[in-house]
Recover the amino acids of this structure.
């Protein structure tokens, strides 16, 4: 049981780190090494100065919904971890981590909604950008999709996990 508890804790920390990276880093859509777009900025590589020049992303309703869902998932997963730590030390023997599991499940659904919206509405989100056919999804977008099953598995494990000690 201690091994399962450690596994769930490590899984939670890994998914939380991946959520932070997917939300904050600059690569949801990429045009090679010359331009990247994320949830907050559009960055272009300047050859003359060999630096990245970033400007705020153009707000659209779809982009704001993706931002909101990603922030919601980070907040829910963070709350879930803090509550788990609190329950670990204060819960009576035999208790089940329902609240922690539900927060993780809702965080997984929030990331799913954000990634799905970005997938389906990328032309509206990236409206005044280069041709979409020449670009591709970045690693942060892929991290968001990887977080979905990990968060759902973590949530399901928490719901079935009982405190033994």
């Amino acid at each position: 049981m201690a091994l399962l508890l450690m596994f769930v804790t490590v899984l939670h920390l890994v998914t939380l780190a991946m959520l932070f990276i997917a939300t904050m880093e600059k690569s949801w859509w990429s045009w090679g090494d010359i331009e990247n777009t994320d949830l907050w900025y559009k960055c272009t590589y300047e050859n003359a100065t060999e630096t990245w020049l970033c400007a705020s992303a153009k707000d659209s309703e779809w982009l704001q919904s993706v931002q909101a869902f990603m922030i919601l998932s980070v907040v829910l997963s963070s709350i879930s971890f803090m509550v788990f730590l609190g329950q670990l030390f204060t819960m009576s023997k035999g208790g089940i981590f329902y609240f922690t599991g539900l927060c993780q499940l809702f965080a997984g659904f929030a990331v799913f909604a954000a990634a799905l919206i970005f997938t389906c509405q990328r032309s509206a989100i990236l409206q005044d950008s280069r041709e979409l056919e020449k670009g591709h999804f970045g690693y942060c977008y892929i991290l968001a999709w990887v977080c979905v099953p990990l968060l759902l598995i973590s949530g399901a494990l928490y719901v079935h996990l009982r405190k033994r000690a």
